[in-house]
Write a structure and sequence with these properties.
Blueprint (H helix, E strand, L loop, with lengths): L20 H10 L15 E4 L6 E4 L3 E3 L6 E3 L12 E2 L8
Antiparallel strand pairs: 1-2, 3-4, 4-5
This protein binds zinc ion.
Length: 96
């Protein structure tokens, strides 16, 4: 990430729950050996709009895809109480 303007030191050591964009998606997808990736978000999920194509959808697992364009989105488990924390991996990204 080179466009982060937060000024914080949270990028040390690579991805973490406060990463952004693709870095966050990768982090959540690999957390706990991938166990969190398909785990349901408490409360039934987060209603959001795709950050790639704008289609409304509900993110029901910590890593999920837009039903329209398959754009990959994720939210860190400690921050999953707010749809504003959902990060988008970018168009063309596919989960490893
Ligand atoms: Zn989409």
């Amino acid at each position: 990430m080179s466009n982060c303007a937060c000024g914080g030191g949270h990028h040390a050591g690579g991805g973490g729950p406060f990463s952004e964009g693709r870095e966050l998606v990768d982090f959540v997808a690999q957390a706990h050996g991938g166990a969190k990736r398909n785990a349901p978000i408490p409360g039934g999920g987060l209603a959001t709009s795709c950050q790639g194509c704008g289609a409304p959808f509900t993110l029901t697992t910590f890593v999920g895809s837009c039903p329209e364009c398959q754009g990959v989105h994720a939210v860190a488990p400690p921050r999953s109480d707010d749809a504003a924390n959902i990060q988008f991996a970018g168009l063309g990204y596919r989960l490893p």
